[in-house]
């Protein structure tokens, strides 16, 4: 079994590997160290991803890179040779759900946040889904209700809020907060809505 079926770069037109210019490509097995370090960095700041720093283990990273590489999609953003962002999602095992990608997580190193890296990375991820994975009809993710910027971010990329899961996730202060289910659904042929 090939865990990473394609390692070819899928950079937007004009992208180079110069320092400061993002290169966005599919993840490769040798990205492990950089992705592990990225997740440790991001999880150090509460209120973003669900895992806390002590829950970012090598097994966790190996597992999501392997799973999304074999049955889904994982992409990294690089500044020079440094991995500064990663996004992944995978197909569920059951055939009835195999038309979608779920368990999506996106992370950008704190020092790089708010500078357009996340938007470029996620836009490229969705472009690959749209163009190279025609059998993927739906992408879904969860985000905590207090992460308003992330909700606005996903909405601007064509995701809709589909559900409120009450008290599903512990907040920074320990109180429970709602988790928001958001989904992107492949538009019907001919729909040229440029959000997609
Ligand atoms: C959410 C995240 C991936 C966005 O990446 P980014 O590089 O910071 O985002 P960009 O600079 O490309 O900005 C895109 C949008 O993200 C939002 N955003 C910006 N900084 C953000 C931050 N620190 N946290 C959350 N959202 C942010 C804004 O709504 C922005 O919209 P705009 O382009 O209209 O200004 C990134 O901030 C991050 O990794 N946050 C911590 C982990 C996390 O929350 N992951 C998502 C869990 S569901």
From TrEMBL:
Q: Which GO terms describe its molecular function?
A: acyltransferase activity, transferring groups other than amino-acyl groups
What InterPro entries does its record include? Acyl_CoA_acyltransferase, GNAT_dom, MshD_Acetyltransferase
Q: Which domain of life is it from?
A: Archaea
What keywords is this UniProt entry annotated with? Answer: Transferase
Which portions of the sequence form the region Disordered? 1-22
Q: CDD domains per the record?
A: NAT_SF
Q: Where is the N-acetyltransferase domain?
A: 22-187
Is the Transferase keyword given for this protein? Answer: yes
Any idea what this protein is called? GNAT family N-acetyltransferase
